[in-house]
Amino acid sequence: MLGGFSALARVTHRSWSAPGAFFFLFWTILVIVSFLLPQFSPWPGTVWWILATCVVFYLGGLAGEAVAWPKTLRVNRRLPVRRLMLFRPAVTIIICFIAGMSYTVLCQLLGVNFRTVEPPLTLQFLLPFHFAGPCIGGMIYSSKSLSSRRAWLTLLPLIPPALLALLFTGRMAIWFPILSWIAGYFAFQVLIKRGNIPVFNRKNLLRGVAVVSLGLFLGTGIYMLRIFRGSESGFEEKLNAYVDAKDSENAFADSWNKLKPAVFGQVYSFSFYFTDTLRSRPSPQWGAFSFAGPIGLFGLGRGRVSSQSFEIDEGVWSNTYTMLRSPITDFGFWGSLLWWLMVGAGVGYAYARVRRGRLFSALFLVWFYADMMTLGGYFFRYNSVILSYVIVGLYLFLSRPRSSGLRAPAFGHIRASSHRQEAKGPGG
After folding, report:
1. How far apart are CA 279 and CA 271, in angstroms?
2. Which of 101-115, 312-326, 361-375, 400-414 has the highest average model confidence (pLDDT)?
3. pTM, rounded to two decimals
4. CA distances from residue 56 to 106, 286, 296, 348 in whole angstroms, order as listed
């Protein structure tokens, strides 16, 4: 059923990059993967609920696109092009790199222990650059604002979170920045190619295999490091722990056993939460879970709270339950469907505007793609993630058309290069 609806969504949207089609495709893959190992097979009722959620989201996306497509909305006739010029790309990347590296280095020098205490508030203002920097890097790479000789600079913002992940063995510390880079890249591909992005071609399939392989490598490696280091290890002790992990015979097998539920058990994890909530019927939290970041910041409630864990596999505990959990916790089952209808309409509207050359709307596509691929769904639970989107939005604002003799059709259009030499591609 999910596969059939995914195909229908692809036909009606005419692209897998459309939020409604992407949502269907993403959950279809997760459900298929969950049945590959018998111990992670979900309750069938859970799959039906996922199907209902996808249908509601898809209908919302269609409505949002319909609203955004009136004839009065002018198209940026400069698109599609091969190259777009963003605001000071090299300088922006270097600033994000310095800010992100400062956070990583200071956390190590101050001996921050993320398991017991949060970093100082002044230091936390640098954390958003771990997410905003890679996202902007993906946008710049996609837009080809830098020449091919300098395109490698777009990967610089990934170095600080990678180092943080190695020092503090945090899986999402590097995984979310990587997904942010990918989200920025694809959001701008929608802008540049007007949504006509081939997904199932040879090049993209190889890229997908590379990303999945990288995720498995990083996840397994980080779990291996966790086995051999303490939570308060100094820099030298951490280096020694990495040597011990490399020489251990059982470290890889133990690490894979811990990572396996994260790969195959996402739908099973949600199924556990879904069936438990069906039985207990807890009272709705009315946004306290999804919007925990701002609520905690302004003292309006308890802020972010830990979720109850369950043993998803022998000796492995989980409390993610996927992104479908947050709306149900906050608004109940029927309220969650209304949530997904509105979210689908919002990102569908943004998608249609991005296809017509509206640059600023790409911010909402970035949020959608990144939040989908994190599986757990951040929504507005973390202020650092919210601030990272503010930084990305500011960069998109600065990249709007400048006064250069070209009349901008509307706010939010990015200035395409008008030089014949630049239109040929990133040659330097």
Report:
1. 12
2. 361-375
3. 0.86
4. 45, 20, 31, 12
